[in-house]
Design brief:
13 strands; 259 residues; alpha/beta; single chain; two-stranded antiparallel ribbon
């Protein structure tokens, strides 16, 4: 649902449009500058708090740890006695990349905590102004051959939530952030305890162009502890597969077209 209300940004420009996610309570808006707080409205932004770290021309979407922390933040604001009776507005800037990431967060929040379908979660943007968003792209040089839209991200979140692959009641955000970092392995569980995606190993552990590369042996202790029994290599042969098989981990090559 769309909502109109009158407020002004710090340059005196009137803002009259916002997207409503919880009736009379939670909204999303886009401002050119920081808005003034009002007695009936509380404004907050995450644009400089949750920041995507790009490899090349990629700019998002934000990872699960940031989504988790965003959801915690919103829930705290909704429950805060000091904000009782005030409209809570998550605002973002006209930076198209930050705006796409911010929209993903509030729509995924709607899926997880407001029990919305992907279509219902995105509906406030379809019904109002400014529903067009930059599509996300892969982390590589050159032209992007497949664009990931905000709607795609919401649909993925919905699928993971419904299949119980995503459960913030048991989600260990500290462990996620630890292993998600390049220094600690650069890997994530796609399906918990079943399917793990990780950065392709190299012949030896080293730092190259400021980027940490890991040998197979860096992953094996974690794999053994968490019952990872098979590795499937999708990219170039940068290490000897025998280093995994000698550790009792099966290894297969599945090279993609163009690799």
């Amino acid at each position: 649902m769309n909502m109109s209300f009158a407020t002004v940004d710090r340059d005196g420009r009137e803002i009259i449009d916002a997207q409503e996610f919880i009736k009379d309570r939670l909204y999303f808006a886009t401002f050119r500058s920081k808005p003034r707080q009002k007695q009936s409205m509380y404004f907050f932004t995450i644009d400089e708090e949750f920041v995507y770290q790009p490899f090349y021309a990629d700019f998002g979407p934000l990872n699960l740890a940031m989504l988790y922390r965003y959801c915690v933040k919103v829930n705290k604001k909704l429950k805060s006695p000091s904000l009782r009776g005030r409209k809570i507005i998550h605002y973002t800037s006209y930076d198209a990349r930050k705006r796409a990431n911010a929209a993903c967060l509030i729509c995924c929040y709607a899926v997880i905590y407001l029990n919305k379908t992907p279509e219902e979660a995105f509906a406030p943007f379809r019904n109002g102004k400014g529903h067009q968003f930059y599509a996300f792209r892969d982390a590589s040089y050159g032209a992007c051959t497949y664009k990931l839209t905000v709607q795609h991200v919401i649909a993925g979140c919905y699928k993971a939530y419904k299949c119980k692959y995503l459960d913030f009641t048991t989600f260990d955000v500290d462990e996620y952030e630890h292993y998600e970092s390049v220094e600690n392995g650069d890997f994530n569980w796609v399906v918990p305890n079943k399917f793990l995606a990780f950065s392709g190993p190299h012949n030896k552990s080293k730092i190259e162009n400021g980027y940490m590369l890991h040998a197979p042996e860096a992953y094996i202790p974690y794999f053994k502890e968490h019952n990872v029994t098979t590795v499937i290599r999708l990219n170039k042969r940068m290490y000897d597969a025998k280093r995994f098989t000698d550790a009792g981990i099966a290894h297969y090559d599945l090279f993609l077209c163009g690799r």
